[in-house]
Amino acid sequence: xxxxxxxxxxxxxxxxxxxxxxxxxxxxxxxxxxxxxxxxxxxxxxxxxxxxxxxxxxxxxxxxxxxxxxxxxxxxxxxxxxxxxxxxxxxxxxxxxxxxxxxxxxxxxxxxxxxxxxxxxxxxxxxxxxxxxxxxxxxxxxxxxxxxxxxxxxxxxxxxxxxxxxxxxxxxxxxxxxxxxxxxxxxxxxxxxxxxxxxxxxxxxxxxxxxxxxxxxxxxxxxxxxxxxxxxxxxxxxxx
Length: 240
Description:
This protein is 75% helix and 2% strand. The protein is mainly alpha-helical. It has a two-stranded antiparallel sheet with strand order 1-2.
């Protein structure tokens, strides 16, 4: 019988450490083109994101702005070059699409953030900016905000863990993409959002490195972001 510690160690190795073999080589010309497209997309996306996060809660313009942002990330990613879904290691030693593995990682990250929410709830200086951000869901249409959250999460992963990750090359793509992802949220003026983006970027970046594709990062991102959308407000209320 395998011990729980060994199971956890094996899971971490498979999900975050040991890459699945693949061959995603591209020509120098294609690589340079990917870098140019990725850089232009980043500039436009960062500007749109800063503007979207500063829109007052309840303003219908928020929906259009965030959908536009998702379109920027996704279009830039698709124009940059080929994107791959990726594969993860299975318990049997083979490889398959990273579904259960990525769901587990997303759920783990969600649990960590919800636990942190209980602490943040007791510190008004940290809690209030987060509540203001969540007001977009409270004062607007929650189903619509959930749909936009999902669409935007997919667009972000297609760009940051797809196009940008490939454009960075072999030198520290996990750290570089996580740092850039976090920096794009600075314009919102919410330090905890920057921290959250950095942590999410690290985890999804490791999934991207291991699986070689964007499917795993997308699943992690959606599990985390949609979970927070629905569960963080009551957690913040309970902790106050």
